[in-house]
User: Fold these one by one.
Assistant:
Number 1:
Amino acid sequence: MTLFVLVVFGLTYLGMALGRLPWLQLDRSGICLVAAIVLAAGGAVTPAGALAAIDFPTLLLLFALMILSAQFAASGFYDRAAAALAAARLGPARLLAATVALGGGLSALLTNDVVVFALTPLLCAGLLRRGLDPRPYLIALAGAANAGSAATLIGNPQNILIGELGGLDFWRFAAACGAPAALGCLIVHIVVWRLWRDRLAVAPAPGPAALPPLDRWQLARALIGTAALLILFATPVPRPLAALAVAAVLLVSRRLASRTVLAHVDWPLLLLFAGLFVVNDALAATGLPARAVEALTAAGWRLDSLAMQLPFALGASTTVGNVPAVALLLAVWPQPPAGALYGLALLSTLAGNLLLQCSLANIIVAERAAAAGVRLGFAEHARCGIPIALASLAAASAWLVGAGHLAPL
């Protein structure tokens, strides 16, 4: 049975790395779902065991946050923000800074993947209308979305997972990771400006353009919901319950159909998480990961050290992806200290800026830009992404070691 589990696990994570399995039209979510079913059908896990392996509080929190973000999308907020940014009468440096601030700030509260999905098309359209090259602004948007999302436990899927499985406090996490995340956004601006400044030298003044409509009532509800959520996060109320309560209130509306809001939920991502929980639990049940962790510890390699976490973050981002790798590590790491989890969240997120395929946010920006007629290639992204990732990881590493969250070795 151990061999069977290892084969299924290996194929699953190969699919995570490739994005699909050869000759099959299965994406990452489909791969995880099929793998969980195969494990149950093969007797490696029981149906009850599969359900027990799924961390429903994490899924419910992620679902509720998608509802909150959907409220912003339904109000027209994302469309208006992107259009207003592209039409702003700003010089190139300030326009680039505004792009970084918008992408990073929104991603800290509304999940980075959702933010870049909504902002990219209209930002492309507005910049093209001004006669500007959208590519540096898109790189800045993706980079800032990754860096900004590292600031909070709700900024990206891996942080949500780390926060729930580790039982981390929302505001203590923000205090620990907020400064290096903000510094990461600053690094994004500096690197993109220095490498693209010749193409950003002239920014024609925008002509008059009608901004997309904005439903102020629906936006007010979204803002109130966000404020209520942040207040509840400072109370003993469990985060999933607090988020679900806010989501339930937002779904009750006389003007906005619940079907419209639910259509914005990323159901495949929720299935991906559920499948990963089952696959990782089956592997953990073999005892092999626990023995591997014990062997590393006995050899002097501590999982709560920078020497282990930094290579892990870079390796995870360039292979299987941060979410699957973090889910796997947490499944085999007994009672990690809070400081180590701060490091895991911060480093795994910032490493996503390294290459185009290292972060789902990067991929979303490239795909949405292509649909808008703008090609953002691997080499163009890597030219900025590599120095952004290395500089922000170096700064974050110094911060984590200096604050005592991670041991150097």
Number 2:
Amino acid sequence: MSIKAVATHLHVGWDMIKDMLKAHLQRRAKRRSWKKVCRIAIDEISVRKGHRYMTVVLNLDTGEVLYTAGGKDHTCLKAFFSRLKRSGAKLKAIAVDMSPAYRKAIELYAPKRVLVIHDRFHVVSNMNKVVKSVFRSEQKRLEGEGKNLIKGAMHLLLYAQETLAEKPKKQARLDTILALNEPLNRVYLLKEDLRLFWEQSSKKEARAFIKNWVTEARSLKMGQLTRMANTIEKRIKNILAWYDYPISTGPLEGTNNKIKVLKRVAYGYRDMEFFGLRVLFIREAKVLLTGA
């Protein structure tokens, strides 16, 4: 039942029902205990056009959204870590992307011995951006030479090899493109090799693997690839930490999809504090009053 429907049924204003629900959610949020919080994921979601974001923190052990805040700079997490400290929680690990803002927040406010894991989703996503950049550069170069061999083929480069194995026509086209373009071929193979990092049998083997990958990436002397290699080398401790705590922001990506649905159903939210409260109880969304 929507807020509007309840307001109509009771012959009161829509905003009165919304304010009642908001106050109820505020009371429930304050009563929540964080004492057993051990592993969390942090990520942002776009909530409005014009680069408006919300930071979301998820309890990876329960699937519960713990905290939301407008924006994605380091200050938006200060209140979260302050409350976490007061709760007496023994936080062990954080799954997070390589965002400088979130890294700064963790350095400033998080418990000093917490393990920070940069998971495969964001590392591979960053590598895919490199592939796209090289593709665009090669496409521009070829068009300047009056050629058009790779136009419209970017999506093929982003497929995983095992996925393409089930699509023989796409595999054949990709093989043709890679055979005709050495830079794309080298970057594609490095992209696929990087995905093997998370399949090593031990942390020691993973360390050797990623160091070799960085060396090979640099040897190609491509600006975009060199920057990616430098980033991985700089954050290698946090990437290798996956072998100590194999957690990721994957569950949070699923929650973010639910948040997007909540936003669409309500046709956007004018009161972002209320929206944040709704997100805290997103797992109960089907039984809560809907509407902006």
Number 3:
Amino acid sequence: MRIAKVDCRLVQVPYRVPHRMAPGTSRFLRRVLVFIETDEGVTGVGETGTTIPERGGETMESIYFAIKRYLAPRIIGMDPFRITQIIDRLESSHWGRTGFLCSKCAIDNALYDIVGKTTGRSVAELLGGVNRTRFGVSRSLGVKSPPEMAADAIRLKERGYAMLTVKAGFDPRDDIERLAAVRDAVGSGYPLEVDVNGGYLIETAVKTLRKMSRYDIEAVEQPLPWWDLSGMAKLRRAIDIPITADESAWTPQDVIALAKAEAADTICIKPIKNGGLYLSRRIAETADACGMGVLMGSKHPLSPGTSALRHFAAAIPGMHPILGYGAPEERFAGDIVTRPLTLNEDGSVDLPEGPGFGIEVDAAQLDRHTLHESSLLDPPPAEEAGDE
């Protein structure tokens, strides 16, 4: 079996409610779908994308053209089962291990889908075996007024979410006020975490998170800019809240640096930012060897990427039992598969069944949401720019 063709499709789906975090606000989700076809007629699908430009500089435009013009031609004719060799070849085409991670993810996912479909195995089985088939789910609260966020928190708790995330990294007083309102709404004992997205500097972080500690939060995610490992280590010693590294943890080498600096307790893995399932597993194993826990983030994928998250989480023995993403239906007014992945009535999610990722792309929906390549050259919509 050989790789015969690699096709890219750019899709756009609107958020049900604009998504706001410290770096900016998004009203539409754009994703790149990669379809790898073999000479035996088996096709695998992979999903990737960004909401804002990534730490490595990747944007939706760069991802699309990097795959189509540079990465895809390098893998034509290769055996799709040799995923390690394919990733090594892609990484040999640029300087450094952090390059084109989001781009590589889509190719990686499509390869695993092909191998699963060909062998009749799920991707979780290919990654080492199924350790669990059902997961609790956490949900990020949209940044609104404290009363509105409190109302949202009550609704989501009643819906069955196992944990909620309060976005921070804005004005510290407003951040604390929103967190206090959410804690009052959900009551004591219900798990809450705070995600700063690197929005604080060390002086602000120490003072603000010490005040937040009274609200009994499970962890604070990426409290400082990704590069400030010494600051994160100082903060970790100064507060009594576990620190999760997200933007600071892109590669296994990043995890080793975090461990040496004693800058984090837990690593947030997102296959899209970490280069796909093969490289994400290396990160999980490195974190485990360094004595750090791992949890699952997302990047807000559609159903192909969501299935990849669930299969990965199912295969990693030490993965946190609460996933950082439930289903596309939570956030988006559309999808591109015949049976979109959903939430259970109790707020949990299940591992998709079937070979590969267990999903089937709906050609009509794919066409409906596909953007023409020329749209990549248009300026971004004004309402998507900046931080509101």
